[in-house]
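dude i think i finally got it to work??
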Amino acid sequence: MNFTNLTSISEIKRIMEKHGLQFQKQFGQNFLINPAVPGKIADEAGKYVLEIGPGIGTLTRELCMRAEKVAAVEIDRGLIPVLEETLAGFDNVRIICEDIMKLSIAEFIDDTFGGERITVCANLPYYITTPVIMLLLESGAPIDKITVMVQKEVAQRLSANPGTPQYGAVTASVSWYGSVKKLFDVSAGNFIPRPKVDSSVVQISVGEGLRGSVSVKDEKLLFHVISAAFAQRRKTLANALFFEFPSISKERISEIILDCGFESGVRGEKLSVYDFLRISDKLSDEL
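look at this
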């Protein structure tokens, strides 16, 4: 197939001008201009792929060359004619104009891929990174891997270890569902418009988290405990939990923390998701 170069600045501008479009800051639109990057991301995809935010189709083309079936979900209605043009040479792609946050992910994947296990690829803007990742993980859909390009700072948080400044609620929550590894960095100069910060590509292997090997009494309570622990990072864990669960005395909360092997003045940033699970299970007996 003989395609135009979608990483060429002049070609991107030509396409945008042809369709009367401008870069939409509200959707975090920054298009890749390094031809090596889309291929590297697509190499991580599997046979069946859900792409979130295809833009003008730069990564989508690479996915279509490797996968058996690709579903590309784009929120910007103005880009649908562009995608229909840039992906016209492929018969293994379905373009959907939707807000991914409003889709029933499990139902959508089942309808689109007939129950097959899939991988997800996405270039996520900062404001929606965590909501989309958690939506996918919590959906229960048959997802093997999630490969996403995010702000470098977000990538550091996703893969952080307990006790480090980057470690937070999203780190612990994601590690419950899967393992995270950073694949490579993508500097700001690889995009148009040029963003203010660098990006990184990370991969979440779904099913490799703690959830696959242990049970929890109340999963909803576990996430409540994690959220409370990081709501005010300067608070001790005992104070944070007492604020969220006032029906349990502060003395009893401190006892639970001590029973789990921590000092009563420990802060949540020191605990792994397994530590939160142990505390959550003990709290559930008190509620």
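The beta strands are 31-32, 48-52, 69-74, 93-97, 118-123, 143-151, 178-186, 191-192, 199-206.
im so relieved honestly
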